[in-house]
Amino acid sequence: MLGDEIAAALGDQGGLTVVQLAEKMGEDAGTISFALFADHGRFRRDAGAPPRWWLVSPAGNGARRAPEPPAGRLIGAARDRSERPATGGGGGARVLSPAGGARNPVSLPGPSASLGLYQWQKDALRAWHANGRRGVVEAVTGAGKTMVGIAAALEELARRGQVVVLVPTVELQRQWSAQLAARLPALSSAGRMGAGRMGAGQHDSLASHDILVAVVNSARSQDVRPTRQGGLLIADECHRYGSAFNRLALDGRFRRRLGLSATYARDDDGNLEWLDPYFGGTCFRLGYDRAVRDGIVARFTVTLSGVELPAGERAYYDELTEQMGALWRSLVERYGLPETPFEEFMRALAGLADSDNAGASTARSYRRAMLERRRLLADTEAKDWALARLAPEVRAAERTLVFTQSIAAAERASRVLASCGFRAAAVHSAMAPRERAEVLPRFAKGNLSVLVAPRVLDEGIDVPTADLAVIAGASRSRRQMVQRMGRVLRRKPGGRWARFIVLYAERTVEDPASGAHEAFLHEVVPVAEEVTYTHGPKVAMPAPRCHG
Q1: Which band of pLDDT confidence, cut at 50, 70 and 90, is reported for residue 57?
Q2: Which helix (H) or strand (E) holds 451?
Q3: How far apart are the C-alpha atoms of 438 and 309, rounded to whole Å?
Q4: What is the rounded CA–CA span in Å between residue 188 and residue 431?
């Protein structure tokens, strides 16, 4: 079995990258990469770029073995959920999550009894209570974080306290206001019923309402302090407030504080500098493992589909990569930029590029080459051909979401799928707000079967349930991948499974064999019902051609 072969190779010489393992074993790097993730727990890796791998437990000592991929395709087969540890999350955060889940709603005593909370939501509230009613609840997209916030708000109102719900966008303000309007009992003082709103032309405050939904851009500069002692601040998408500007909305006069996020970690020091001191860190984490096991989200499969760049694009990609390598060496060796981690290098690069210091020109050249390479990968026609080949999968799905990296790619993908006979439309920031607002209802009603978007659907938009998500513009950001996956993981009638397909250009920075999507894959591969990978044709077709 492939897992045993990898174990033997790593047992003989640990600390190897995927490429080194592939060369040593004479196997395809993609096969090696996904087998390492599929045999989660048997192998460990460091935080390098690319990561190096070691054997944790030799074969025969009880560690799970990686399934042998038939014909080099199947990487993760259907898994027995009973073998999974009953945990609420992991990764070093303080998580109070009793073993065992419930597939049916669990009532919570007190003012939130009518909400019909699930077990994980009840556990999250208990963890928050145990943490002095401060902390961040991190849960995968689609699991129902909002209901945790509403339950906490009802508790606060029941003790005659006041609540501010902080949101990053007007769309989220509308969603929270609608949810609260449907659930607020007669708990507030007379004449102070209903949720007020601050932002988007509204100027309510806690002087007139006991609960206020405030957009962060307005809350930063206006008065959101409670008029009575104590109070609760709920920060939705709380990772968005770890900046020097947005942290001004985190008023210290609220004694009780609840952060909600699917992806609390940031690429900068915002968590350490602003968020953790205010909220007190993560008190509960719901990962994919428990969310799937408890039936909170749909079961799912993952397909990683490689495409081969046409010869001209490949040559240009290699030229840009070589140029970036030379510039990187100069930036590190001559101008002292940090080699690792990549996030620190990029922060230093941005600071140097925007300065008048020596090396600024080199930094700007590196940034231009990087953006041009990113544009090349986003706009390659190879992904249009791959989309056309996915016509049978799109046809089998109830609804399909396609994510791209650019507006041009979104428009082009929409045309490709329309030519295959699908009712497809693109939605992006270049469209008029009214035009964008008309697309989602059409998708929800079934008048559109495919919705294509760059980043406008990633966060803060209530997207109708879909069965299939196709990532045509693969992102290196775990946050973006988690948000996109969450768009198809909501539970579906009849227990239908969700499917997640990632298109990536082979032998590029998008390729998982080079370490792309590592944190995301490490999270989802052990939980997926099936993980497969495919390779695209080596010869470019003259035009996208529908299959099936």
Answers
A1: low
A2: strand 450-453
A3: 36
A4: 41
Element (H, E) at 206: none
CATH for 300-310+380-535, options being 3.40.50.300, 3.30.720.210, 3.40.50.720, 1.10.3720.10: 3.40.50.300
Three-state secondary structure readout of 290-348: HHHHCCCECCEEEEEEEECCCHHHHHHHHHHHHHHHHHHHHHHHCCCCCCCCHHHHHHH
- The DSSP letter of residue 251 is -
Q: What is the pLDDT of residues 80-130, one digit of tens each?
A: 333 333 333 333 233 333 323 333 333 344 555 567 899 999 999 999 999
For residue 93, what pLDDT is reported?
A: 32
The pLDDT tens digits of the residues spanning 284-295 come to 999 888 988 898
CATH topology of domain 113-286: Rossmann fold (3.40.50)
Inter-CA distances, 544 with 321, 412, 503, 504, Å? 27, 11, 15, 17
Q: What is the mean pLDDT of residues 349-374?
A: 94
Contacts of 396 by beta carbon, 8 Å cutoff, 6+ apart: none
Q: Supply the mean pLDDT for the chain.
A: 79
pTM of the entire predicted model: 0.71
